[in-house]
Amino acid sequence: MADSKEYEINFFTPKSPFAKDNTKIIAWIVIIWALAVFGFHFLMKAIEKPTPEPAYITYESVWENVKSNTATDIEKKDLAKVYLTLLGKYIELRDNPVLKKALTSTIYDILPAEEKMAFVEATQVFSGNLDDFELLLNAVKKFPEGIKQNIIDALGLSNDNGFNNLLANVIPYGLLPFDGAPLDKENMDTIPVLMDKYLIHFQSGLTDTKFLGFPFHYFYTSVFLLVLFCGLCWYYCVAIDKIMDKHGMEKGEV
User: Fold this and answer.
1) Do both 117 and 212 map to the same domain?
2) How many Cα neighbours within 13 Å face the side chain of 178?
3) Shared-domain flag, residues 168 and 108
4) Same domain? 34 vs 70
């Protein structure tokens, strides 16, 4: 073993001319790939801007009046629809007690006086255990259709079979047992946090521009980067053949 040759291969300290050329081409491929992947995300982050949904604009226009208890029934209806939109879009909010209490309280406020007590009694079918979806489903089945229709009429959702009809179907899932008490300050302070989190999105020209029918950022990450990866693999195969020819190596050699 004393006279045997030792071969040490280290990517970061190549010694032979072939290893140096091979390392160089691999390094350039890695740099190109890293710039294409991470550089694009850094670019998106650098040029993004907060863009509110229409529902957020509605919320923002009525919230100060709601906080000061001077909101009209129309403003309360608009706010209730915003709550329903959130509950319908984000399943994780189905067990958010603040949002559900805000919706229940708002519905109570806009119902006619003669319907308020029946509404309070009807909400008692809902369990306080928000983690058990089966209990919620059972409560929804027990919720009186007449009370539900009263709520739909009060919110102005009864004459629309489109989006408003979808909101109407969400109503029972957004209720909690209710005693008629208004939201306390702590709950009121939590509502803006929820609105900012779920109704403001960060967008830019990269997300708003359409390419082949897709948002550009989606096409870039899901299609172009895959094509680029395949292209870099092909380029390495071609380049390594040329490097081997350059150094007089047979293609069958290791």
Assistant:
1) no
2) 28
3) yes
4) no
Domain check: are 112 and 236 in the same one?
Answer: no
Which residues span the domain enclosing 195?
Answer: 52-202
pLDDT average, residue stretch 29-53: 92
Q: Is the pLDDT of residue 253 over 70?
A: no
Cβ distance 125 to 137 under 8 Å? no
- Residues 44, 216: Cα–Cα separation, whole Å: 11
User: What is the largest distance, in Å, between two alpha-carbon atoms of the chain?
Assistant: 103
- Is residue 239 helix, strand or coil? helix
Q: Which amino acid belongs to residue 225?
A: L
Give CA–CA dist 206/221, Å, rounded.
11
In a domain, 106, yes or no: yes
Nearest alpha carbon to residue 87 among 124, 140, 37: 140
Does residue 229 sit within a domain? yes
Query: Is residue 6 over pLDDT 60?
Result: no
